Each structure stands twice: as C-alpha cells, then as structure tokens.
Amino acid sequence: MKIVFVSNYFNHHQKPFCDALYYTKDIEFNFIATTSMREERRKMGYDKISIPSYVIQSDASEKAMIEAKKLINEADAVICGLPPRELLKKRIRNSKVIFYYTERPMKTAPSYLQKLKLKVAWKTRASRKKPIYLLAAGAYTASDYSELGVFENKAYKWGYFPETITDVDLQSSKENGSILWCGRLLAWKHPMDAVQAALNLKKEGYSFKLKIIGNGEEEERIKKFILKNSLSDHVILSDFLSPYEVRKEMEKAEIYLFTSDGGEGWGAVLNESMNSGCAVLASDKAGASRFLIKDSENGFIYESENVNSLTEKLKFLLDNPEKRKKLSINAYKTITEEWNAKTAAKRFIILAKAIINGSPFPELFPNGPCSKA
Hints:
This protein is of the alpha/beta class and 373 residues long. The protein is 39% helix and 16% strand.
C-alpha cells in the first residue's frame, strides 16, 4: 500500500506518525513538504531534527515537484493539509482517496461573507461524490465543517501525535508544588490567566512555583504584572527551550496549565504534558481538550478565560495529592495506550483500506484516533 502525506513543512510533531507509517511492513510512505519552515518556528526549535529520507521538498526544484506530483497521483491514500490545488487536481478528478488533515476552519466567528467564501472553497475541495474524508484535528473541527456543508458522515477524530515516551518516572521526578505553562505568549493562548491564578494562590498562602516557558507579545505585560504584584518568588519566566528541554520540564512539573481559547486548533503541548505525567488543567475551548481529556478522570477541563474556575481547580489539585497522582497516571495511560503515533498509524491503515475496498463510511473504532468525529 502506498501512502503519501502532504503538508507545509516537516517538523518534530509529525515525525513519530510518519516514522510509524514508514516502518510498517508492506507500506510505501513519503512525506511531501510544500514550503520552507517559517522563521518563527525555527526560533522555537522546530528545525532541530534530522530530515528522514522519505521527505521530499517539492518546491526545491522542478524535478522534486514532478516527483511529488507522481507520488501523489499514484498513492493509494493521501493525507494532506491544504496544499497548492495543482498537487491534488488530478487525484480529485480520478476519484482517488484523500484525507484532509485540518484544524477547525472557523477559529473566530467569521462574517457572512467570510463564511460564504469558505463554503465555496470547500465545496470544490470536498465533493460529496468523491472519496474525500476529514481527519478532524480538534473537537470543534467536524462541527465547523458541517456548518460549511462538507464532510457529512465522513469525518474522523484525529490530532497531532508528538513523540510518546514510555519510561517516564511519574512521581519521584516531580517537584513539589510545581506548575508549568509553555508556548508562545500570545493573547489567545491566555498566559495571563495562569499568572492571575498564581496571584490568587499567593493571596491564599499556597506554596507553589509557576514556570512559564516562551516569549511573545504578552511578555512585557506579564513582567509588569509580576513586578507590580511581587510575584517573582512564585512565577519564573524562561525563553523558548528546545522540544527536548521542554519535555524535561514537563516531567518535573506536577501540574500543567493549557489555557488557550478557540484560536488553538489543537495544542500538542497537551499530548506532551499528559505523556509526561502532569495533572492537566485544560481550557474547554482549545481543540485538543475534549478529545484527550475525560474530565476528572485523566485531567480537568475548565471554562476558558474564567480565572476563578482555573484557580479553584488549581487549589483542588494542590490540596489533594492523591487525586493529582491518579489524574497524572491516567493522563500518561491515555497517551501511551491510545492517543499516540503508532496507534494512529495502525488505525489509519485499517480505515484507508476499508474505504479503498468499498466501504464508504466505515465505523471501525469506538473512540480515539480514527473513530467517527
């Protein structure tokens, strides 16, 4: 079976899934990158990986583009983001299987005209009569596309599948009272919510340390808030670290805060923090939260942008170490047993084969990757 994955650029979040496909017996796999990595992502350490031999940079030369088109047209199944239309034109015309792998298209409420343009664009990309399916990266993705009138009964749960670590020390490596937040310091990621919750904890006499890793537009505001409220003993700011260093910080943290709103289509830090054995507090608006978190079983979901809700759940976790331990263990199991690259690759192959063999709307898995969205 030939599988091709088309996306903008290759990065460490995609590598585990791609490796899983590449090393599967009887699977021929290639990844086609259509653009170079943005400088913003390079600064975050996204380029600190070796590029495997199965990756083709289609915009590198005319020869590479010809090879990319040939692989796409001949593949049994293609997974893609939103590549240049010319790459898929022939495949769509020949009614060959395509899986669009996307986050929600309406992260903010669109105007009437914007929504109309989206509808027109997706009607041409995802004809109901063609074997074109959705890998919905996020809990709100399928419903967004349903509003646009596409992928009816053809949407499957999906996400990002960063490296899964199976030898994490879930307890002895944890630092008492440690809380972690990682990412770009952007308004829609709401790092200030974490800092405001820290102030609430300080006022009530809690012993804790909140570490924030990243930089961005909210950095100066956060620094001023820390200074104004004498929070430097409780809140530590760090610049971006490499993906490896971030994971090490997660493995030391007891609690992880995932505060993004609906602007976060997925949020791979949630996978990583759960895999690192953190007890997670996740915003209900972020895409990954309701796919990965079963509230009070393997983490807590709180109302997005509600600092009081975030504070109360933080207090509960700090006050109840046994519950915190149970959440961390269950979070780790969620990633190592279901939401990981190897499971996703196996299930994708089964799903794609079922469709290729004549089952247009297969329902093969009750939950997790490749279950109906």
